[in-house]
Amino acid sequence: MQLGSTVTLAYTGTLEDGTVFGFATKEEPMKFQTGMDMAIDGFENAVLEMNEAGEKKTFVVDEYEAYGEYLESHTAKIPIEQIPVDNIAVGKRIWLSSSEDGAPMPATVLEIEGSVALFDLNHPLAGKNLTFEVELLEVEEAPEDFVSAVEKAKHMKEQAKLLGGDSGEDFR
Length: 172
Hints:
By secondary structure, this protein is mainly beta. It is 13% helix and 35% strand. The radius of gyration is 20 Å and the shape is globular.
């Protein structure tokens, strides 16, 4: 298989204790084009090593190729009146807007103290090694002119430098 191939697959994802965190069935499969940042790195890399429909594989993706390490400091205190959800409670997951770009991100309420809520901003699977059992159902070859998301980002950065607009930020 090559980068840019579109894959259709069934999978079951489990944690080290056997808890299932995600799945796709043959009847409702997962489908994505490789190289477009549509799956976590470790998952995509392992799928790229598979070759043909019907192939099955079990693999572990460590936390660094999944959702990263769990950061104790990745929290935010927010006044309750600024939270756009009624009935917040400890343990509840809600969507907050990032102050950087306004993009929504999930957060878990860790505690409520007076009129302020403390949120955990880590991904729920951060810090965890993930085991996947995958069955490749279909592989569509990559388009002849395929350009990966990483290549596009690199090109955009090079263009920004040429045009004098490089802010030093990495697009990836």
